[in-house]
Amino acid sequence: MKIKVGLLFPGLSSLCIAAFTAGCTGVVIFDPKGPVGDAERFVITAAILLMMIVVVPVFVMGFWFAWRYRASNKNAAYAPKWDSSPVIDVVIWLVPLAIVTILASLTWKETFRLDPYKPIISARQPINVQAVSLDWKWLFIYPDHDIAVVNHLVFPAGVPLSFRITSETVMTSLFIPQLGSQMYGMTGMETRLNLLAREPGVYMGQNQQFSGRWFSNMSFEAEAAGAEEFTAWVQKVRSSPVTLDMARYEELIKPGAARQVTYFSSVEPGLFKRIIERYVPATDTAHSHRHGNHAPGGR
């Protein structure tokens, strides 16, 4: 069976484009719901388009050369004796140089603009959340509301969300793709992340860092609610008969502990700081207190 090469490239191109666009419906990072996610989508899209300047011509020329210089085409010019082409040299050097320069400039600018530690400017006060990664679940402490929740993050839409993140186990990564940046959580340390959901909705949150046997199940729902719905949810959590102190925390961190959503109506004062200091050498902690500072990342 003979295949017309002239029809092969358009057919393959159409198939690839159809497959890519069909798959994009499941790529939530291209459906952002906040300003950080919007900016990151722009950077990713710009990088892809810039790289296509090189990739697309390579594929086009690959198929075109095969068609143009096929054995049956006796009219194609054959000129094997040539040393160099100034035009080709200029193209293969200047085009990649321009692409790299633009990408470097864009990356430099956006890296500083999207610094995850930088608070999001808003007329509304941020919701503070202390996130602790466990095996294999997430603990969210709301210090301003004196409540805590396992595997369910709720916050008002349109209000900045300020995370302080640490880990009780190995290094993990907190990521809500539709809202933006991911941030690592490390034992004995604190990292920070600032996000904002532009509109109400339920978004997927997950751990992107391999952290053991069940890390793939280490996900949670991040629910951006209206102001009244958030207030009602806080009252619902406060009605829970369970409180969170260090003794209950010790039970919670066991790998075999259940991963279902759990509410804690109150939290032992300074618990997040104590979680971090569990893995900070005593000499470092004493030195920090003498100088009026907290332990690394402590609050």
Could you give a short description of this structure?
The protein is an alpha+beta fold and 299 residues long.
Oligomer, anyone?
single chain
The percent range for strand residues is 15-25%
Give the fraction of residues assigned to helices.
25-40%
Computed structural class? alpha+beta
Strand order of the largest sheet: 8-5-1-2-3-11
Description of the molecule:
Helices cover about 40% and strands about 20% of the residues. It contains seven helices and eleven strands.
Key words describing this protein structure:
299 residues; alpha+beta; six-stranded mixed β-sheet; five-stranded mixed β-sheet; 39% helix; 20% strand; elongated; disordered N terminus; disordered C terminus
Question: Which secondary structure elements does this structure contain, and how are they paired or packed?
Answer:
Elements: H1 5-23, H2 35-68, H3 86-113, E1 127-134, E2 137-142, E3 147-150, E4 152-156, E5 161-167, E6 172-175, E7 183-185, E8 191-195, E9 201-207, E10 219-225, H4 227-238, H5 246-252, E11 262-264, H6 271-277, H7 282-290
Parallel strand pairs: 1-5, 4-10
Antiparallel strand pairs: 1-2, 2-3, 3-11, 5-8, 6-7, 6-9, 9-10
Helix pairs in contact: 2-3
